[in-house]
Amino acid sequence: xxxxxxxxxxxxxxxxxxxxxxxxxxxxxxxxxxxxxxxxxxxxxxxxxxxxxxxxxxxxxxxxxxxxxxxxxxxxxxxxxxxxxxxxxxxxxxxxxxxxxxxxxxxxxxxxxxxxxxxxxxxxxxxxxxxxxxxxxxxxxxxxxxxxxxxxxxxxxxxxxxxxxxxxxxxxxxxxxxxxxxxxxxxxxxxxxxxxxxxxxxxxxxxxxxxxxxxxxxxxxxxxxxxxxxxxxxxxxxxxxxxxxxxxxxxxxxxxxxxxxxxxxxxxxxxxxxxxxxxxxxxxxxxxxxxxxxxxxxxxxxxxxxxxxxxxxxxxxxxxxxxxxxxxxxxxxxxxxxxxxxxxxxxxxxxxxxxxxxxxxxxxxxxxxxxxxxxxxxxxxxxxxxxxxxxxxxxxxxxxxxxxxxxxxxxxxxxxxxxxxxxxxxxxxxxxxxxxxxxxxxxxxxxxxxxxxxxxxxxxxxxxxxxxxxxxxxxxxxxxxxxxxxxxxxxxxxxxxxxxxxxxxxxxxxxxxxx
Length: 515
Description:
Elements: H1 17-25, H2 32-47, H3 54-81, H4 87-115, H5 126-133, H6 137-157, H7 164-179, H8 199-210, H9 219-232, E1 237-239, E2 248-251, E3 259-260, E4 272-276, H10 280-292, H11 308-321, E5 334-344, H12 345-352, H13 356-359, E6 367-375, E7 378-383, E8 396-401, E9 408-417, E10 423-431, E11 435-441, E12 452-458, E13 465-471, E14 481-485, E15 488-500, E16 504-513
Antiparallel strand pairs: 1-4, 2-3, 2-4, 5-6, 5-8, 6-7, 7-10, 8-9, 9-10, 11-12, 11-14, 12-13, 13-16, 14-15, 15-16
């Protein structure tokens, strides 16, 4: 009986301060995977650990989280800095990051829940632990939302879908802080993080990120968009009343993603929140003009050094979706239902546009997609059976409508994954009349087999110009090309590189018939 006079220590190794210090100091400095895996293992053990006072539980989780941040950043950089990762490596990096944030969120939610259980039993020593932790409510709620927000982002890296229960969990954390009058209190999220944040700010960050239509961005661009949202976060408007200025709304108590005001809430509830771009469009316009001069401001914290040409497309994308009015479609869409044969990549596209004989055999390997709508600019299609891991925003594809005999060249501009095997894509048409040609650099001496493969696209908007689809890293502004068609020789003078993909690039040339 005398043992009951003393407070027992939790039966967990990290309850001992020395063991916790040993675990943190033992993290391998040069093996990010192993470090993240070790911390994830500790967090998993904490999720169901018994006997911790809630303040002690959060303190251990916080120290683990602080220690692993450099390793997580390294894995994240490896993920979005290399667009040609093998599928197994991509999945390994994705799982390590996504899984970690999920485990952290669970522990933080346990602590946050205990703060609302005062007088209800809760954790062992719950009242005392909750009382001691209550002063840290802004940090507990902010890290909960930040962890769940990271899960939303990692889902977007793979183009969704975002699990609906995440929105309810995010809202629950925000509402808990609001109930404790802590939603607007400044807090430093991490020891080395610049500036301060608030629980409401972190919640708004996730909402604005989801509203930014990242299904048309590459993973690195998604990361930059997330960083830019953080930069402009204080310029957004977020409130419980739209005041006629709301562009988006969310019900923080429901498992529902934020919505545009084009679809109004079915009922006004106390948990409705509205947000709008506020002064962001003007600030963003100023930044775009600055970056257009080739300079990325030093105070723009993007997680690394990036050239203006990398940042500028993301800024322009956000300017479109953060405008007070949603972007209008360039061309009207018409609903249809038809099959589409699809081949991917530059090599297959070069083959199908090289002539009837060349494309024999390729057609049998084509995937079958269902076209759901068409416009002058492209297609919207549904995929019922995703094959392989090649499909990404920016993928070059060749398409043949069912019953047709012509092939169309296009680029995937939007990609939204509905499940592991189903997805929706938006495709921009590059050309309906393309032809494969063998290009000879003007500076080289012609020999058989020395040509560069290219796909010639007619340029409708500029007479005397053509676009060429080339293998990646082929375009050179200093080098003219030529090709033969029938008895004529054509000279191509470079104008500009239009865009680059994983295995191709598109460039504009001035075309002149020489003979």
